[in-house]
Amino acid sequence: MVRIIPMQRSQTKADTAGRSSVSTQPISAKHVRDEATLTQVLYMVRLYAGILAMDETIIKRIRQLVGSQSDESDRELSQYNMTLVLAELEKVGQRIAYWNARLRSLLKGQLSPSASRPASKA
């Protein structure tokens, strides 16, 4: 089973406008790039989660149709459609697993102590 990591809401200018302390440190290009990459990964995870939800809805509907059909040819067609949906679902599951792994990798890189410390000169 694939686990979806929910994305937290980003702060808006309105959220930060009331704060009196503003950071005077410039934002590094690496930080901006990492944040953009993280945002893209979260977008892809959400996108595939939406596709997964649609596929689940389609599977439920096919099961309803198969149960109500009496004609053998209609039943075979519905079972074929179910096979197609399950194949698509497998691809979506693989993509979600990839993007979740990418997200974990990015978060480990941002949270690891060595990533936040500057390299010492020896």
Report the end-to-end length measured between terminal Cα atoms. 47 Å
Number of helices: 4
Rg (C-alpha, Å): 23 Å
Shape: rod-shaped
Uncertain stretches of 5 or more adjacent residues: none
Number of strands: 0
Largest sheet: none
Strand/helix succession: HHHH
Mean pLDDT: 75
Share of residues in helices:
over 70%
What structural class do the secondary elements suggest? Answer: mainly alpha
Oligomer: single chain
β content, as a range?
under 5%
Explain this structure to me?
With 122 residues, the chain is mainly alpha-helical. The protein is built from four helices and no strands. The protein has helices spanning 13-17, 29-68, 72-111, 113-116. The longest helix is centred in the middle third of the chain and has 40 residues, at 29-68. It is rod-shaped. The mean pLDDT is 75.
Short overview:
This protein has 122 residues and is mostly helical. Helix content is 73%, strand content 0%.
Short descriptors:
single chain; 122 residues; mainly alpha
Topology:
Elements: H1 13-17, H2 29-68, H3 72-111, H4 113-116
Helix pairs in contact: 2-3
